[in-house]
Design goal:
This protein is mostly helical. It has one domain (about 5-345): Up-down Bundle (A middle domain of Talin 1), CATH 1.20.1420. Helix content is about 80%, strand content about 0%.
Length: about 350
């Protein structure tokens, strides 16, 4: 099928997003059917976010383009997390957030390298993202280790999570400011490019609109996940750390792969790595602090979660240390993600949270 035809089909499928919202709120369609419909609706939305990001990157450069995609793409995850907090699903919140970091580092980046092939990456930017995730893992140990004994949701751990979250947010703001200034100084607009780029304003408006619709669709999908999980016999933790994380990252999954397939492997890697770092040092602490408006959330992650995130960042950094991508590295990352998913399936729910 020609690219022009595919684009027309994807544009037509964007109607599924509003359709999901209408069907969910005005009909009695079963959860299984609604789950499938919502999952299908996320595909064209993810494509649109990737499309708008690439157009924005034409004006801003790959670094800022990756930052924009990470920012807009993570909005559904924030909404999903706060909804779960409101419903008292603390293990779902923690599992979906750590699963999101792992998913971006291994699955999204892996598929991007497979579709993008060989190419040079922004080594300095990549190492910065790896460092941010590693720092976050070390800080998460502060409330997590005490949570390995007793109630992980006790108030003292929620209080202990506050300074950890504040430190992470300060680090995020400082590093982001320096990084954006660096990318702005390095970027030179390609006036001779043959790409019929949208204006920066239009690109940002499309990103914002697609993110809002994605958030509503993702919310519907999460509300139907429990029934879906029960039907296939999965644990809540696995659903949160794998299925919800993949759903919440639909924008990065689709956007990064589309961009990589078009040959812009540097931007694709920026999308995956910037998103993983942003979840670790911005989204997780933001959820922890905002949760106090609803119900305090302790960042008491399970040992398997700490090991998964820490191991993922070390493995990915080792593969990409020299700043060069290849397809076999992509396959290695995907294989590592499958191993992590199997581990999440094997450990089951935390005792007391079945």
């Amino acid at each position: 099928m020609r690219p022009a035809v595919i684009r027309k089909v994807l544009y037509a499928l964007l109607a599924l997003g509003p359709l999901v919202v209408i069907v969910d709120r005005t009909t009695d369609v079963g959860d299984i059917a609604l789950f499938v419909l919502a999952a299908a609706a996320l595909i064209p939305l993810a494509w649109l976010i990737g499309e708008a990001t690439e157009h924005a990157a034409h004006h801003t450069g790959p670094g800022i383009g990756g930052f924009l995609n990470a920012t807009f793409g993570n909005a559904p995850e924030l909404i999903i997390a706060l909804i779960a907090v409101n419903e008292g699903l603390t293990e779902v919140v923690r599992g979906s957030l750590t699963g999101s970091v792992v998913g971006n580092l291994l699955l999204v980046l892996g598929f991007s390298l497979v579709f993008g092939g060989s190419g040079r990456l922004d080594r300095e930017s990549s190492l910065t993202s790896f460092a941010l995730v590693a720092i976050a893992v070390l800080l998460f140990l502060i409330p997590s280790i005490p949570g390995w004994e007793g109630d992980p949701d006790r108030h003292s751990l929620a209080v202990l999570s506050v300074p950890v979250s504040i430190v992470l947010l300060v680090i995020y703001v400082g590093v982001t400011w320096i990084s954006l200034r660096r990318h702005r100084s390095l970027h030179v607009s390609d006036e001779a490019s043959t790409m019929a780029a949208w204006s920066l304003r239009l690109s940002l408006l499309v990103l914002a609109a697609a993110t809002v619709v994605t958030a509503f669709v993702a919310e519907t999908l999460v509300h139907t996940l429990t029934t879906f999980a029960d039907e296939v016999g999965l644990t809540d933790f696995f659903v949160a750390a794998v299925i919800v994380a993949i759903v919440g990252n639909a924008a990065e999954h689709g956007g990064a792969v589309v961009v990589a397939y078009r040959g812009n492997i540097k931007l694709a890697a920026e999308i995956a790595l910037a998103s993983s770092a942003q979840v670790a040092v911005f989204l997780i602490p933001a959820v922890a602090l905002l949760s106090w408006l609803i119900e305090p959330l302790a960042l008491a992650f399970r040992p398997v979660e700490i090991i998964a995130v820490g191991g993922s960042v070390l493995f990915t950094a080792a593969l990409l240390w020299r700043g060069y991508s290849t397809r076999w590295r992509g396959y290695a990352l995907i294989a590592a993600y499958i191993a992590v998913a199997i581990a999440f399936f094997a450990v089951g729910d935390r005792p007391g949270f079945e």
